[in-house]
Design brief:
Elements lengths: L23 E2 L5 E2 L31 H15 L3 H14 L5 H33 L4 H7 L8 H17 L13 H17 L3 H14 L4 H13 L3 H14 L4 H37 L9 E5 L6 E5 L4
Antiparallel strand pairs: 1-2, 3-4
């Protein structure tokens, strides 16, 4: 008998599970028994494939080998053999038909480069057009004693028309993954492999695998949380918080994700406050180094905030 899993949830370990239990994790944390030993089973006709749940959709026989590798990876993961699990998920990825992560990331990189070139070309064109039309500004009016009211109406209409054309010419586009018949199962393999990388403290590798999983399945909250964890371990709290907030948009009632957002928001606020203090310290050092040539320092200047207007009054104080 061939067993095919449809698991997303590698973290949902049943409370009564023990090392060595034959468990495969499924959508929503469900679990089913699988064969203890892993054997290569030739792909069968789709009508004869046995799934782990009654009424489960029939799995394409081309996924047969990938799914078996995934089952072995799940078993190794449960046994805490994370390197062996990583290798099994890698085999599942390689056995899966269609485009793989490296190709998808290369396509996205090329897309992003083209978008950057389009943005630069648009900016250059817009700059040259404005110089050519010599659109008057408020400062020009004051300098030359003219008024925008006397501006040539035809030139103004041409300018507005150009603005409409330019905005129509350049509209940033998001990368669209080419049609992939096995996008969902492939995203699972990559996300599960990322979970192994987290346990192996290979955080950059985990991020890359989650990137692929999210290209294939943008609302995959497990992949978002795993990437969040990798970012946090690399002290990239801004990106970690972004992923946590995105995951919360998809699962607004998830208490664990809510706690992640609260914790990371606090860490990010602390990071920004520390950065602000460091920046102000550097600016103060720079100011003192300049004023030092005149025998002065920032301590000679006192700033008093006006409670009514919120503005500051700067006063000079001679050293005693």
């Amino acid at each position: 008998m061939t067993t095919i899993s449809q698991g997303f949830d590698l973290d949902a370990i049943p409370a009564n599970a023990k090392d060595g239990d034959e468990v495969v994790y499924e959508v929503g944390g469900g679990a089913s028994k699988v064969e203890k030993e892993f054997n290569h089973v030739p792909a069968q006709d789709a009508t004869t494939t046995t799934t782990t749940r009654m009424n489960s959709p029939v799995i394409d026989p081309r996924l047969e080998l990938s799914e078996q590798f995934k089952l072995r990876g799940n078993q190794e993961f449960l046994a805490k053999n994370f390197m062996d699990a990583y290798d099994s998920y890698t085999e599942a990825i390689e056995a899966c038909p269609g485009m793989k992560g490296e190709e998808l990331l290369a396509l996205k990189k090329k897309h992003d480069e083209v978008e950057q070139e389009k943005a630069y070309a648009h900016h250059t064109h817009e700059t040259m057009r404005r110089r050519k039309t010599n659109i008057p500004t408020a400062n020009d009016d004051k300098i030359h004693g003219t008024s925008t009211a006397t501006e040539n109406p035809s030139r103004k209409e041409d300018t507005e028309e150009h603005d409409k054309e330019d905005s129509a010419k350049y509209t940033p586009t998001e990368f669209q993954v080419p049609k992939h018949d096995f996008a969902e199962p492939l995203s699972i393999y990559y996300s599960n492999r990322a979970a192994c990388s987290l346990h192996l403290t290979h955080y950059d590798t985990a991020i890359q695998d989650c990137d692929v999983a999210l290209l294939l399945h943008p609302k995959y909250t497990k992949a978002l949380i795993r990437r969040m964890t990798a970012y946090e371990n690399l002290q990239r709290t801004e990106e970690a918080l972004r992923d946590a907030k995105t995951a919360l948009e998809y699962e607004p009632k998830n208490k664990d994700i809510q706690k992640h957002v609260q914790r990371l928001q606090k860490l990010e606020n602390e990071r920004l406050e520390k950065l602000k203090e460091e920046t102000m310290g550097k600016l103060k050092d720079l100011g003192n180094s300049v004023l030092g040539y005149f025998g002065l320092s920032l301590d000679n200047f006192k700033a008093d905030k006006d409670p009514n207007t919120g503005s500051y009054n700067i006063s000079f104080q001679q050293n005693k």
